């Protein structure tokens, strides 16, 4: 097992350069020139917008004229805005779906695909990956049809299996969330499977042989060999899925428009709606800052818990 | 192990069918007349078979223009971003310099900044400074993804030995010359992987074009298809045909470069 871990310029260097060369620092501008295009773009299109977002969140602005300074008022309003609470709650549900359903299912499929002697592994792998190639709008419209109350494929399957369909997939608040969750499952599972599969193929075979010699069963082998070996991949997958699910937009926007009764309204949709449909730019910015604090803070926490970057030292 | 084979294959096959069914259904629907798309039971092979959906999509809708817009934007964004990422990845992988650790962490932590946070200010800034033209705004803000830099850095650390670079330096090559003539060619597989990934990101992006592009003559594919989808009478027949056509380049690219993409994507996560 290699020991380099996410975020490790130090570790990466230690692995690639023999110790002796470390002591010879080359004084040159070259590295700065190499990384400068990124930082130029980063400052212009990331840092400045984040700063502007912070400032806008303290103003009232309809997109025209001068923003009016209102201090923390937007945040106070958010604290009592039921729609925003719903958006936060729904987004939390989607994050949980990603972390508790999508990630484990991806791991399970990867395990299955990694079985020794499995034929046409490449075909399976490709098939699961295909949904990620399909654009969100296409996903949404295909699933819009699949979940159609009268004629959709989902109800057709139910009718064929149980003799009754007519489930109002997108019209019932709870089922609408289930439908979005199913779309997430369809869209992301294969993508994450690829990462787990690559991780599994990197586990040294001797570890499994040793476990077999010790008489470890399948479950024990999984918990003592597979899981520890997969830790870096899992960390990466968990953090990426979290960040992705926390800003879910296309699925609810296109499939349900956030409804019914805001049961699928996500935080990103809330921000979009406030800014571009209601011209409440300051309010939208405040909601964005809340999302930023939550996502940035929690992903730092995940990083720390899962040990990303720790092996750098 | 042999005992486990059958259930395993059944499990994989069921999932396989589940994953592909919606797409196959959509493909087959795109060849059915409007009234038949929702026929029950759903028929796999369209009967009657028709190309009318495609014909009216291509003649009655500006599909070609949407397609061109999306493709040009995605290709330019891909070429530029692959270059920017390779530069920065190389800088981080093969040099020691003051502030490197800090700069790397700053770059890496930008992965955790949700897009929704910069959505509003980015829109305001670009429109106010007159840079809101789709040709600029759909491309430039997205050409330096941290994920791409990280992927490049990991790949370079693992696959380009220092000795090659040292030898070139002793021969008197300039730093950029080394990058251009030695590093870039060696990076080809990683560039391919990042290229596909970046192309898909740009080609499929929806939220940012939705916010930015108001002039319907500059719609990208997802925006154009959305107008058919949300119009009064949902034009499912056209939408399905459009969906099939739109996904073709992405699928073609994926099939051509899938090995590279799958391996490239995992490089960062596994070794990382």
TrEMBL record, chain A:
Claim: Lipid biosynthesis is one of the keywords in the record: no
Source organism: Streptomyces luteogriseus
Region (Disordered): 1-23
Transmembrane region(s): 32-56, 92-114, 126-147, 178-200, 281-302
Pfam families: BPD_transp_1
Taxonomic path: Bacteria, Bacillati, Actinomycetota, Actinomycetes, Kitasatosporales
GO biological process, alphabetically ordered: transmembrane transport
Top-rank lineage group of the source organism: Bacteria
Name this polypeptide is given: ABC-type sugar transport system permease subunit
Membrane topology: Multi-pass membrane protein
PANTHER family: ABC TRANSPORTER PERMEASE PROTEIN, DIACETYLCHITOBIOSE UPTAKE SYSTEM PERMEASE PROTEIN NGCF
Entry GO CC: plasma membrane
Location of the ABC transmembrane type-1 domain: 88-302
Subcellular localization(s) per the UniProt record: Cell membrane
Swiss-Prot/TrEMBL keywords: Cell membrane, Membrane, Sugar transport, Transmembrane, Transmembrane helix, Transport
Main location: membrane
Family: Belongs to the binding-protein-dependent transport system permease family.
TrEMBL record, chain B:
Domain (ABC transmembrane type-1): residue spans on this chain: 67-257
Entry's localization field: Cell membrane
Keyword Transmembrane appears in the UniProt entry: yes
Parts of the chain that traverse the membrane: 66-90, 102-127, 133-157, 178-200, 238-257
Cited CDD domains: TM_PBP2
PROSITE patterns from the UniProt entry: ABC_TM1 (PS50928)
InterPro entries attached to this UniProt entry: MetI-like (IPR000515), MetI-like_sf (IPR035906)
Main location: membrane
GO terms (BP aspect): transmembrane transport
Topological relation to the membrane, as annotated: Multi-pass membrane protein
Keyword Membrane: yes
One Gene Ontology CC term in the entry: plasma membrane
UniProtKB keywords: Cell membrane, Membrane, Sugar transport, Transmembrane, Transmembrane helix, Transport
PANTHER family for the chain: ABC TRANSPORTER PERMEASE PROTEIN MG189-RELATED (PTHR43744:SF12), ABC TRANSPORTER PERMEASE PROTEIN MG189-RELATED-RELATED (PTHR43744)
Family statement drawn from the similarity comment of this UniProt entry: Belongs to the binding-protein-dependent transport system permease family.
Official protein name in the record: Multiple sugar transport system permease protein/arabinosaccharide transport system permease protein
Source organism (scientific name): Streptomyces luteogriseus
């Amino acid at each position: 097992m290699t020991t380099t871990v996410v975020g490790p310029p130090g570790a990466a260097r230690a692995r690639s350069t023999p110790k002796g060369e470390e002591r010879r620092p080359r004084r040159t501008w070259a590295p700065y020139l190499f990384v400068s295009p990124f930082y130029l773009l980063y400052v212009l299109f990331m840092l400045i917008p984040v700063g502007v977002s912070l400032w806008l969140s303290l103003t009232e602005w309809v997109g025209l004229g001068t923003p009016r300074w209102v201090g923390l008022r937007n945040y106070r309003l958010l604290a009592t805005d039921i729609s925003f609470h719903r958006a936060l709650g729904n987004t939390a549900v989607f994050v949980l779906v990603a972390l508790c359903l999508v990630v484990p299912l991806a791991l399970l499929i990867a395990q299955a695909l990694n079985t020794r002697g499995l034929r046409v592994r490449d075909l399976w792998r490709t098939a699961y990956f295909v949904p990620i190639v399909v654009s969100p709008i296409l996903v949404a419209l295909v699933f819009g049809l699949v979940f159609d109350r009268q004629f959709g494929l989902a109800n057709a399957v139910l009718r064929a299996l149980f003799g009754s369909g007519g489930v109002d997939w997108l019209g019932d608040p709870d089922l609408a969330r289930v439908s979005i969750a199913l779309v997430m499952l369809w869209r992301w599972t294969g993508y994450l499977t690829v990462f787990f599969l690559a991780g599994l193929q990197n586990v040294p075979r001797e570890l499994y042989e040793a476990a077999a010699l010790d008489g470890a069963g399948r479950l024990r082998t999984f918990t003592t060999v597979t899981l520890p070996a997969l830790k870096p991949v899992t960390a990466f997958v968990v953090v990426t899925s979290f960040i992705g699910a926390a800003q879910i937009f296309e699925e609810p926007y296109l499939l349900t428009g956030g409804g019914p009764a805001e049961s699928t309204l996500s935080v990103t949709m809330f921000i979009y709606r406030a800014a571009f449909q209601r011209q409440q730019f300051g309010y939208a910015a405040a909601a964005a800052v809340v999302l930023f604090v939550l996502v940035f803070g929690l992903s730092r926490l995940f990083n720390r818990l899962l040990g990303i970057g720790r092996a750098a030292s | 192990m042999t005992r486990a084979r059958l259930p395993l294959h059944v499990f994989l096959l069921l999932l396989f069918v589940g994953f592909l069914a919606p797409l196959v259904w959509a493909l087959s629907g795109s060849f059915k007349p409007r009234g038949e798309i929702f026929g029950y039971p759903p028929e796999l092979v369209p009967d009657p078979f028709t190309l009318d959906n495609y014909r009216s999509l291509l003649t009655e809708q500006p599909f070609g223009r949407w397609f061109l817009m999306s493709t040009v934007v995605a290709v330019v964004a891909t070429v530029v971003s692959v270059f920017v990422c390779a530069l920065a990845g190389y800088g981080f992988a093969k040099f020691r310099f003051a502030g490197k650790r800090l700069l790397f962490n700053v770059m890496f932590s930008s992965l955790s900044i949700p897009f929704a946070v910069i959505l509003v200010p980015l829109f305001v800034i670009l429109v106010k400074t007159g840079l809101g033209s789709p040709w600029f705004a759909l491309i430039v803000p997205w050409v330096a993804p941290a994920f791409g830099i990280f992927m490049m850095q990991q790949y370079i650390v693992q696959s380009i030995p220092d000795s090659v670079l040292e030898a070139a330096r002793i021969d008197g090559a300039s730093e950029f010359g080394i990058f251009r003539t030695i590093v870039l060619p060696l990076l080809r597989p990683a560039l391919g992987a990042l290229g596909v990934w970046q192309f898909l990101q740009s080609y499929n992006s929806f939220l940012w074009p939705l916010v930015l592009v108001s002039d319907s003559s500059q719609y990208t594919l997802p925006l154009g298809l959305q107008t058919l989808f949300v119009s009064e009478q949902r034009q499912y027949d056209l939408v399905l045909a459009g969906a099939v056509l739109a996904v073709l380049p992405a699928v073609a690219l994926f099939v051509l470069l899938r090995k590279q993409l799958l391996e490239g994507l995992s490089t960062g996560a596994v070794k990382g």
